[in-house]
Amino acid sequence: MAPKLKFAEGEKVLCFHGPLIYEAKCLKSSVTKDKHVRYLIHYAGWNKNWDEWVPESRVLKYNEANVQRQKEVQRAHSAQPAKTKKTPAKGRRSEAAANSTPAREESRASTPAGKDVESTPAPTKASKTQSKDIQADSGSDQPKKKRGRLDLSIESEEQYLAKVEVKIKIPEELKVWLVDDWDVITRQQKLAILPAKLTVSQIVDNYLAFKKSSKLHNQAKESVLVDITEGIKEYFNATIGSQLLYKFERPQYSEILQEYPDTPLSQIYGSIHLLRLFAKMGPMLAYTALDEKSLQHVLSHIQDFLKYMVTNRSTLFNLQDYGNATPEYHRKVHLLTFKGRVIQGQWSLVGGTRQGGGITTLPLMDELRTYGL
Question: Domain named Chromo: which ranges (predicted)?
């Protein structure tokens, strides 16, 4: 029996995207083979390129209570310390347009889909305002050098990005798991259970065995496949500690290194961390010495691997593969945060009071050492 749909097509809704809630519209609905309900969501005021399939858990009824919840989430997010950000030349907008969506660029950039803040499209209203500003400039008596320099810098930046951009398309069926993974780790503060039931090495080896069993397989293809799969493992082992972990997972990573000092991390971590690798691998490949033909060949194998993951997603991904972090672990995370602030000279604890620009007392430093921090 098909599950009952909570939202109708065309219904005005609210939808989580990253840590914030946005006004949206439900365009379509579908039920997966696993009988999970998904909705195609369009975010109000945003280009249709941002439309995406989301699980039902991310969608909220548009009512007074949830609108109030949206405002509270926005206030809480705005109250967090703002990170210093460079304003991209092509992202200039009028003050009114900027105030209409105060945190969309930042929240979209922080989502697990890995979108860059400079690639975030401005709402349509902002684009119109920007074009008016440009027209106004053209009619002024100001020297044209400034406008010309701006145009040239934007063009050269886009040309540069086009040269190094390598895109790996993550299938929609797997994007859902990246979003859920982000939510489970950063909001619910759970951890992947390690060692994983099915490790990265096992998944890669299973893929290789699957390809070998194909009727189209031959000895020449096998050699290439072995190189590709071994390369995936090497990339994973090299980047897991520096690029593939959320801040909340770092103490767990330290524990793993201590407990399994001689074991490759591809034999510890599992499918969701492998998927994170593929989400970030495009920029990595852009700076390799591969020529265009070789690069496209590698990308075709990666996309084929992702298709394999889609086919086997019911085996590879399960929310039961996460567990609650212990109170002791939470204490480690907090102490690690304290240590970072102390090193930066932001504050210190002296006699139980908070003071700026000093160093911590010995008891706190001793506790940090106890946890290997």
Answer: 6-75
- Classified as helix, coil or strand, 112 is coil
Which residue spans within 135-265 are E strands per DSSP? 190-192
pLDDT tens string 30-73: 988 878 889 999 999 888 888 899 888 899 999 998 999 899 88
Comparing CA positions, the residue from 4, 15, 76 lying closest to residue 41 is 15
What is the value of pTM for the model shown? 0.52
| Distance between CA atoms of residues 105 and 18, nearest Å | 11
CB contact at 8 A, 12 and 23: yes
Do 41 and 133 touch, CB atoms closer than 8 A?
no
In sequence order, the 6+-apart residues with CB closer than 8 A to the CB of 354 are 347, 348
Domains of the chain: 11-78 (2.30.30.140), 164-341 (1.10.274.30)
Looking up tokens 């929609």 gives 172
pLDDT tens-digit map of 213-236: 887 777 777 888 999 999 999 999
The first and second tokens of residue 177, run together, are: 């798991």
Q: Check whether 107 has a pLDDT greater than 70.
A: no
Chain centre to alpha carbon of residue 224: 30
Residue 184 per-residue DSSP state: I
* CA separation, residue 213 to residues 27, 200, 220, 221, 294 (Å): 41, 20, 14, 12, 25
